[in-house]
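## Example record

The block below lists the input lines for one assembly entry, exactly as stored, with component labels intact.
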Amino acid sequence: MAAPSARSRRRADAERSIARIVSAARTLLSSDPNATTDDIAQAAGVGRMTLYGHFRTRADLVGAALTDALRTGEETLSSIDLTGDAGDAMTRLLASSWALVAESAALLAAAEGVLPEGRVRDMHAEPARRMAELIRRGQEQGAFRTDLPTTWLVSLVQYILHGAAAEVRAGRLPSDEAAHVVTRSVQSVLTG
Amino acid sequence: MAAPSARSRRRADAERSIARIVSAARTLLSSDPNATTDDIAQAAGVGRMTLYGHFRTRADLVGAALTDALRTGEETLSSIDLTGDAGDAMTRLLASSWALVAESAALLAAAEGVLPEGRVRDMHAEPARRMAELIRRGQEQGAFRTDLPTTWLVSLVQYILHGAAAEVRAGRLPSDEAAHVVTRSVQSVLTG
DNA sequence: ACTAACTCGTACGTTCATGTACGAGCTTTT
DNA sequence: AAAAGCTCGTACATGAACGTACGAGTTAGT
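Predicted structure tokens for the full assembly:
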């Protein structure tokens, strides 16, 4: 989507505007999934019309913001060492995943409400694949259970992550305990 | 809310209309959380104006529908035997809870979007209390873990239920496996 | 410098569901 | 059977974003 050379007909100032808009969208939508295009343009220090010059619809913009969040997320996740003991690897993966999920939960909600059915999930193909792979490896090692569908286990881990984020947001779970709670919960669910 | 004698100034036909409207709302909102007042009135076989005669706002109506769903849910849940082995009791409680959650997931989403922040959770005080109590009893029996906050365990069970409902809706989990999958997942999460 | 691209204000048009107003007929109730 | 309560159609007002149109001014690229 943001291939730097593919559309290099864009002028430098346009490039800058787009970057500011996407960044503002990520920030705003991550705290209020209903932020309007106007809010976002303002936060980006840009006129609403400029925004519409680059993103035809609000959905476009939300999509771009989510893409950007996933891209930076991938940078973190792809550098994690997933070899060795699967349980330990899972702990490492969860620590980073937790931070990312907690940060972008509202953005995700915004996308879910605006993008076509299933699109959000599709965009998560890469992180989902990574998680599935690790679970499968753990199963082969005998470290993780095999009596429940792997698909379900992958989804379940996501629900736990998002659930914990919601609890923190609601003030029912201290944020400094969250990572620990998530890790222990996931471990029990995976080991049976 | 529906005290039969409290507002007995209502005529019988009005009572009938209200019942049909609430019932239609439950049905429709349980498959489409965005159903309009018009849709609901039509499904109830009633004019939109009649609906507005009884429910001032859409939020009122959604609230009434959820209240009704919770009321019937309570009838089922309150009759469950929660004595004896906590694990077994949990299995029984989950079986019924699963059916209720799966049925009204979309209604819940509708309410979440329309009712004031936290209202939906407050309305679940009774079922939440019941679940919390059982978990606490299991902890005293030594059957359930005590290394995670009880509050979190209660929430987590809810997230698992709702997650499973979402998976079924999306076609990623066969509905005849769901109850079993939920039970096993909750058991592992509670026993550590 | 000259052109094409970009910015951005003001103003307008659109859409869609919500909720209100009015009023002519039907039911209950007593 | 009379009064009070309900039903419900048509029509309208409201509000909130979204998205478009126009056009004058500014900035970047070559």
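The first helix of chain B runs from residue 12 to 29. Chain B has nine helices and no strands.
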